[in-house]
Design brief:
Blueprint lengths: L4 E5 L2 H19 L7 E5 L2 H10 L2 H17 L4 E3 L9 H4 L10 H11 L4 E5 L2 H4 L3 H9 L2 E3 L3 H13 L8 H16 L4 E4 L17 E3 H14 L3
Length: about 230
């Protein structure tokens, strides 16, 4: 019996990509049309943004915990969150959660280590790029990291919140991301973390200046392994 997965969503596009990846790739392991049971709950992104803009991570944690409790009540056995930014509240959530969680940065770091990457470029919202979410995990693996300069961080943040979370994926924005990633490559990075769950819908690995670490799909695959792992 596979485990029931609970998805604590935040923004729609990234959560949808995670859900689709989880269900689609399961067929390779379980057979046609098969996947573990999966449920999703999300509060409106607007409610999260009130707390994120204030740096109120306890407020973010409260929303995440409310979702986790609702998912646990319908049978979810562990939780994932396809949103990098709100992982800043992760340590406030886990001690009070009725079910265990997987951390998105752990999934990314494991993949980076598997491929021998030593120096990661971190992209995402301005809140994520300057947060301890990835540094805290990467420190354990001995992997270095670099974030974009402030001007690029601000423009990336604008693209995410004005375009990507609204399902808009513009060629000019894709080209801009590639320019920023090239700058990070020039600063010594050997791979780039697509650390907003919508970025994989914009950046094309085929023409990206660096190998990509797709946090959304990596989290979905890690959840799949956990769902199928024998207790």
């Amino acid at each position: 019996m596979s485990k029931h997965v609970g998805i604590v969503a935040c923004s729609a596009e990234g959560a949808a990509l995670c859900y689709r990846t989880f269900c689609k790739e399961a067929t390779e392991l379980m057979g046609e049309h098969a996947h573990p049971e999966v449920s999703m709950h999300t509060h409106p992104l607007s409610e999260y943004m009130v707390h994120i803009r204030l740096g109120n991570w306890q407020g973010v944690a409260n929303l995440m915990l409310d979702s986790a409790r609702k998912l646990a009540n319908i049978g979810a056995q562990f939780a994932i969150c396809p949103d990098n930014t709100i992982h800043q509240a992760f340590d406030l959530v886990v001690p009070h959660s009725p079910i265990p969680w997987l951390h998105i940065a752990d999934a990314v770091a494991a993949e980076a280590k598997k491929h021998g990457f030593k120096h990661l470029a971190i992209t995402g919202t301005k809140y994520l790029m300057t947060s301890p979410v990835y540094p805290g995990v990467l420190k354990k693996t001995g992997i270095a990291y670099t974030i974009p300069e402030e001007g690029d961080r601000n423009k990336i943040d604008t693209i995410i919140f004005k375009e990507l979370v609204n399902g808009e994926f513009l060629e000019t924005s894709r080209q801009y991301f590639n320019e920023v990633i090239q700058k990070l490559k020039d600063r010594g990075c050997d791979a780039v973390v697509l650390g907003c769950t919508e970025i994989p819908l914009l950046v094309d690995p085929e023409d990206c200046p660096l190998p990509t670490l797709d946090s959304t799909r990596l989290l979905a695959r890690t959840a799949m392994k956990e769902a199928l792992r024998e207790s």
